[in-house]
Write a structure and sequence with these properties.
By secondary structure, the protein is mainly alpha-helical. 43% of the residues lie in helices and 9% in strands. The chain contains four helices and two strands, in the order αβαααβ. It starts with a helix and ends in a 6-residue tail after the last strand.
Length: 93
């Protein structure tokens, strides 16, 4: 499914570009939310394991993703189009 969304976003970026509509995909890493039953947030062992694999040494917080979304929506980033943007704190580097 993820691959399909990425390909779809590239086609949409090309199709909607003449109308000055940009299309990008945000690919978050492990985030402390309710997703997956809240395991990343609530299970200290899982949280520690993921944090150890991340260059920034922690799992993500919802505000980490919100900031990336806000940045993409800024007029300062209107030249970013058709991209998959990983927001993962550098997991698996």
């Amino acid at each position: 499914m993820k691959g399909g969304i990425e390909v779809l976003s590239r086609f949409m970026a090309k199709e909607l570009g003449p109308r000055r509509i940009t299309v990008n995909v945000l690919a978050p890493g492990a985030i402390e939310t309710d997703f997956g039953g809240g395991a990343v947030r609530d299970n200290a062992a899982i949280n520690k394991s993921i944090a150890a694999q991340t260059a920034l040494g922690r799992v993500g917080l919802p505000d980490d993703i919100g900031g990336a979304v806000a940045a993409l929506l800024s007029d300062d980033n209107q030249w970013i189009n058709g991209q998959r943007i990983e927001v993962s704190g550098g997991i698996f580097l």
